[in-house]
Amino acid sequence: xxxxxxxxxxxxxxxxxxxxxxxxxxxxxxxxxxxxxxxxxxxxxxxxxxxxxxxxxxxxxxxxxxxxxxxxxxxxxxxxxxxxxxxxxxxxxxxxxxxxxxxxxxxxxxxxxxxxxxxxxxxxxxxxxxxxxxxxxxxxxxxxxxxxxxxxxxxxxxxxxxxxxxxxxxxxxxxxxxxxxxxxxxxxxxxxxxxxxxxxxxxxxxxxxxxxxxxxxxxxxxxxxxxxxxxxxxxxxxxxxxxxxxxxxxxxxxxxxxxxxxxxxxxxxxxxxxxxxxxxxxxxxxxxxxxxxxxxxxxxxxxx
Length: 304
Fold this sequence. Notes:
The chain is mainly alpha-helical. The chain has helices at residues 3-21, 24-33, 43-75, 79-102, 117-142, 149-184, 190-231, 237-248, 254-286. The chain starts with a helix and ends in an 18-residue tail after the last helix.
């Protein structure tokens, strides 16, 4: 390998590592959200479904996000904040819908099967598209604009591969760790059997916690996306209010400041998502019910 090529590779690696560090929060959110989509599946189907979602995530990044982001950043950068407002609003909607489900309000029609793999994979890939868009746009904004097109493309491709492997590797580990516990329960060592039993018993609570963290993450990330990008488009109100809140707690230290920012973004996301849920629910109720097929209600001869 020539010295020039080594220097190019080193530049790409350095730029990718620096940009990746700024996306860490969204990557954690992505890893927390995704396990919700495989809960309840048969154990034999968990890894195949995670694999399909990971392939969909790569498709999102390489076929949709990176080409569109590079084109828009070059020719229509003003469009990007609007896309992030739309994506953030959708995340708020998904998060608020899950919160509504916690209180017994389900939004699943009669013909839907909540464990249908095709729908699960599609829903996960759709959510990944929004989270991956934020990851890649943050990475793109963190790269040196003087790098040039090919170095920028190389850095983004490396970030896309690394983040996908990190997120879905962690998800695969989470969904299969109970199988590891079951194997340990069959081990001759009593200590390992007890440890395996503890792992298996703890997994329902772990997944409930992950579900809560994933929902809060949707509201936090979605709310923050909308607040930040509304400020770049036409309305500074929410961003100014958020700045007032974080400035008020600034003397308490960066951790408290971050918690205040996160909580405020999540509350805003929940409020926005609740409005969207109400609108969507109203539209669903206005739609006419599907016509019943003659087969489901066979006609009987009229009696005379």
